[in-house]
Write a structure and sequence with these properties.
The protein is an alpha/beta fold. The protein contains 21 helices and 25 strands. It starts with a strand and ends in an 18-residue tail after the last helix. Bound molecules: 5-amino-5-deoxy-1-O-phosphono-D-mannitol.
């Protein structure tokens, strides 16, 4: 979604801002703009990519040591030059960039129109800056007072940065619902919607909380107060990411890099959480709140997209290992359907970005009903990580490709550990089984390495299916979420229609689609339902569908039936998702590459979905 970066300090602002926007490109956007404050306040913006903006400002006067820049992902109004941010106020005294949505913009715009204001764009953002100017002028208020007053009137989500022509040494920023981070460097400050543009300059950051306003003045220390004028003490955190994690490091795409990072990221996810004789799982979030888990009649997992698929694997894990009933909910549905939530429910919210608006809202709903909320997040310091009662980070490192890969396997790894930790305490799994599964989990990184060697073969297979119009993915048990995840990967980056199904459900409808044009990816690894899935493969074969099978090394039966067979190492059934997902990620990747798609920034998609 939209990206924000702002700078004040001794350096030329615009190279820092452009570089920052490039770091934020992964979030997804369709236009970009920049404002620089020197002798006057200048705004340049254009539809298209940051490179287009760079070209646009090449000959312009963009000198100055204070400025802000934005990448816009269109919500209100089509992507064009006018709707791009920054937006000026009527007098052009103020300019604003904004992430989020002002829900009551139409009412405010009407009131402002009646007071003589006119609007250039179709955006909700322009309404906000006009409102601030209107309040400032009408009440003879300071800029801060006008911002505070305006923000108490708006409904919705915002992360905003404001520059004023009449105050050439100040940046005002505020947030509610959309993230905003302030980086504190040597005599300089950076602001951004996530840490990626900041890490190059400083590791000291302050995460603004909802309804907080940052007042940043050249040569002074950061001041934070709320929209209701309560002074806050800014708490400085240390960034844990480093610059190399934000580079492609020789890979053609971030997605490919992230796929190949999985041996390391899975290891990082369990590192320090298993003791040396595989007997104890130590997860502070569980140890500190063990009673909440022990007394829970059920667990509700809430998430979106890939994280929801990890949640489905979690359902199988918790029920199998810890014998706790689990419901897995799409956050977007859960938040609006008046769900039954009991105070002794445990809600697990899973999110890579930690910023997904629907998941944040689901958490708020759970909190209101008194449930205990546990977060599984990748981004340290993210809104979800801070909104939950406790949680575990996945430690997968920054995920830049819009298609989630390493975050999924890291989430599943954490869920395995949680299920084992709870099963151990509840006595629903014996020590020998725990030791066996944990020692197998520690074999997974090496087995992922072996699975990654399938890449050239998968590349060849991908070439054959580059122009397929549809794909079906089938799996059972722990591999059903894997089928869903494989289909999602393919559709989001290659734009080929793909469906994931529990294999046995195929005959209740999707079988009608199968003909010689239909590739069917079947995850048919060794499991309790292996024989059953062979029957499903036969059903596809009888209708001449093309079968790409993921099987366990040494498989004989499926090999004879499938058109293409990809063998992955043998492991515990519950750990298979950590391996079986890998070839599906690679398949989607190469098909998208052969179709000339923008793999890392697929059309219409955003990396962190901060609007509902
Ligand atoms: O950051 P989150 O994990 O909360 O994001 C949830 C989904 O938006 C995300 O998984 C999305 O489906 C990905 N593009 C999938 O690859």
């Amino acid at each position: 979604m939209c990206g924000i970066v702002a700078y004040i300090g001794p350096q030329e602002a615009h190279p820092i801002l452009i570089k920052g926007l490039k770091r934020l490109e992964y979030r997804g956007y369709d236009s970009a703009g920049i404002a620089i404050l020197n002798d006057t306040l200048k705004v340049f913006k254009t539809k298209g990519k940051v490179a287009d903006l760079e070209e646009f400002i090449r000959e312009k006067d963009v000198h100055g040591t204070i400025g802000m820049a934005h990448t816009r992902w269109a919500t209100h109004g089509e992507p064009n030059n006018v709707n791009a941010h920054p937006h000026f106020s009527q007098s052009e005294e103020l300019a604003l960039i904004h992430n989020g949505i002002i829900e009551n913009y139409a009412v405010i715009r009407e009131e402002l129109r009646q007071n003589g204001y006119s609007f250039q764009s179709d955006t909700d953002t322009e309404v906000l800056i006009q409102l601030i100017e209107y309040i400032k002028k009408k009440s003879n208020a300071s800029l801060i007072e006008a911002v505070q007053s305006a923000l108490t009137q708006v409904v919705g989500a915002y992360a905003i940065v404001i520059l004023s022509k009449t105050d050439k040494d100040t940046i005002i920023a505020a947030r509610k619902g959309s993230p905003l981070v302030v980086g504190i460097g040597e005599n300089e400050f950076l602001l951004a919607s996530d840490a990626t543009p900041i890490v190059e300059y400083t590791k000291d950051v302050v995460y603004l909380d909802d309804e907080e306003i940052a007042i940043i003045k050249r040569g002074e220390s950061l001041k934070v107060k709320t929209i209701r004028d309560v002074e806050k003490f800014p708490v400085v955190s240390k960034l844990e990411i480093n610059l190399s994690q934000l580079e492609k490091e020789g890979y053609d795409h971030f997605m490919l890099k992230e796929i190949f990072e999985q041996p390391k990221t899975i290891r990082d996810s369990y590192r320090g959480r298993i003791n040396c004789n595989n007997q104890v799982i130590s997860m502070a979030g569980i140890i500190d709140h063990v009673d909440r888990f022990m007394n829970a009649d059920r667990i509700i997992i809430t998430a979106a997209g890939t994280s929801w698929h990890a949640g489905l694997v979690g359902e199988y894990l918790f029920e199998e290992i810890a014998r706790i009933p689990v419901e897995v909910e799409y956050s977007s549905e859960f938040r609006y359907r008046n769900p039954v939530i009991y105070p002794n429910d445990v809600i697990i919210a899973i999110s890579q970005s930690g910023e997904t608006a629907d998941t944040l809202a689901a958490i708020e709903l759970g909190k209101q009903k008194g449930a205990f909320i546990y977060g599984i997040c990748n981004v340290v310091g993210s809104s979800i990580a801070r909104a939950t009662d406790a949680g575990s980070y996945t430690h997968a490192g920054p995920e830049i490709g819009v298609a989630s890969t390493k975050a999924f396997t890291a989430q599943v790894t954490v869920l395995v550990l949680m299920a084992l930790a709870l099963g151990q305490r509840k006595g629903t799994i014996d020590d020998a089984s725990i030791q066996r599964i944990l020692s197998e989990l520690q074999e997974i990184p090496e087995k992922v390495e072996r699975t990654l060697t399938l890449s050239p073969v998968i590349r060849d297979i991908s070439r054959m299916f580059t122009y397929s119009r549809n794909f079906l993915y089938l799996g059972r048990g722990f591999n059903f979420p894997v089928a869903l995840e494989g289909a999602l990967k393919l559709k989001e980056i290659s734009y080929i229609h793909a469906e994931g199904y529990p294999a046995a459900e195929m005959k209740h409808g999707p079988i009608a689609l199968i003909d010689r044009e239909m590739p069917v990816v079947v995850i048919a690894t060794n499991s309790g339902t292996y024989e059953k899935i062979i029957s499903n493969i036969q059903e596809v074969k009888a209708r001449k569908g093309k079968i790409i099978a993921i099987v366990t090394e040494g498989d004989v039966t499926v090999k004879e039936l499938a058109d293409f067979c990809l063998e992955i190492p043998s492991t515990e059934e519950m750990l298979v998702p950590l391996l079986a997902t890998i070839p599906l990620q690679i398949l989607a990747y190469y098909i998208a590459v052969f179709r000339d798609c923008n793999v890392d920034q697929p059309r219409n998609l955003a990396k962190s979905v901060t609007v509902e």
